[in-house]
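Tutorial handout. Part one gives the primary structure; part two gives the three-dimensional structure as tokens.
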Amino acid sequence: MTIVGTDKDGNGEQRGAALLVVLLLVATLAFIALSITERTALAASRSVNARIHDESIWLAFGAETLAVAALESIWKVSNGKMSLDDPWASEPLSVPFDDVSGARLFFVDATACFNVNSLATDAGGASAGAVSPAIEEFSFLARNLGFSVLDGERLGSVIADWVDNDTSRLPQGAEDDYYSLLPSPYRTGNQNIASISELRAMKGFSRDVYRTLRPYLCALPDAQASSINVNMLNERHAPILAALLGENVTVTQARDLITARPPGGYANTDAFINAPAIKSLELDTTPAGRIAVTSKYIEARAEIVYDTAITELNAIIAFDESGKAAVLARRFGAEE
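Part two.
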């Protein structure tokens, strides 16, 4: 079929070729215009997302400041006692910023855990062949979570070697002489760790081991074993309380102690130590120095909603002796 007719001079073929060139140019220009439009829209979207992200971060810092002020107010009216029955510990605090943004603050006790940085305190202080008290307590906790006591001692020794400031290896630990021979060599920290996730770099802490122990461990700046607020424990913390009270206390017994707590919590540490549920255990020694009815460390979690974005901020806040609160560490998003 003939699309373009021709005359004797070939002008029809020339006009057809010119039309084809024009059509190709129009198609090319349309493609270029579409690309420019898409890139402009993408750039505008990126600009909006960047603005929302920046605004969310600043709102998160604002929520953190509010959390510190709120906790200082809570300390003033607590009369030396904090409990799960307190309103601030049982329900979130809503903070409206404006019509398009707001935040919810959750406060959680941060003492109901085993402080791994305490393992270095007396790692070398035990007599030859003996296990230090900190490693022993860690092994009890590991036993309560399904490990053997020997595995618990081994893992505790590995952490102790990592956080202590020497290069002397404990009998079941690991120092630079082990890590430097790995396919991707590195060295021990030889200082307190700031995040529990650092355990994944240590010998023996496979993914399964880490996931089992992680909910019960913390990395607090104290060089010694920290006190646990017994008024803020729930049944999930029974393995920690059982390990604290000694080898002969089972998780079930520790859970019964938690459920037997009086409404509003114990008024002071003596009330806990002299409670009938504790007396019935007939403990050889009661770790009175490790028991508290108030929390030195609180974890504040802020959920910030701004426009279409949701940002999560987690901050560890510490009290000094006068009740002044300060942020020790913060993290945006989930740790793992």
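Part three, for discussion. Confidence is low (pLDDT under 50) at residues 124-128. The beta strands are 93-98, 101-109, 114-115, 217-218, 228-229, 291-292, 297-306, 309-319, 325-332.
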